[in-house]
Amino acid sequence: MTVIGVLALQGDVREHQRALQEAGVDAPAVRRPAEVAHVDGLVIPGGESTTIDKLITAFGLREPLRQRLAGGMPVYGSCAGMILLASTILDGRPDQEPLATIEMTVRRNAFGRQVDSFEADLAVAGIAGAPMRAVFIRAPWVESVGQDVRVLATVTGPDGATHPVAVRQGNALATSFHPEVTGDHRVHALFADMVRSAQTGAPS
Length: 204
Ligand code: GLN
Description:
pyridoxal phosphate; glutaminase activity; alpha/beta; PdxT/SNO_CS; EC 4.3.3.6; EC 3.5.1.2
């Protein structure tokens, strides 16, 4: 069975595990360096990116993660997870060290504070059917992307401008929103397909 680990340092780990299981894959928690080697793909959940960043170092996970990601392991980051996958973070802590898996600049807490959290119905490229209910909780937006990054969904921010909130580069997927909390598991199913394709070498 395909195994998609959920990085379990902080954040809403259980919700991702449940969503992945409903998408038909095994979804163990990943906390130790050795566990990084045993997954076919990885989800980095939402939570607090500065905390997860510190814990990645404290748990000795930075190098194993870096190596697997450089080797093309599929990864999906939601919210704080999106921030961690970026190449550049705006409004981050100075010591925050992104994994630089997706060539993009993200702005932390871009939509405002906790009270400015919101929901929107989004059309996401690659996801068929009705628009997705997307939940944004102190979410980042993507400020700019490199040429190999595909923007899958956008929303209009409080500044009146349109901002990417779902992106993909190769085997790496990221969303500003939290699909694990709505019961609509189409993003997890898309990611599970990406992981299966990477296993068989088929394009997805
Ligand atoms: N604002 C948080 C951060 O900077 C992300 C919020 C979330 O993951 N819901 O990490």
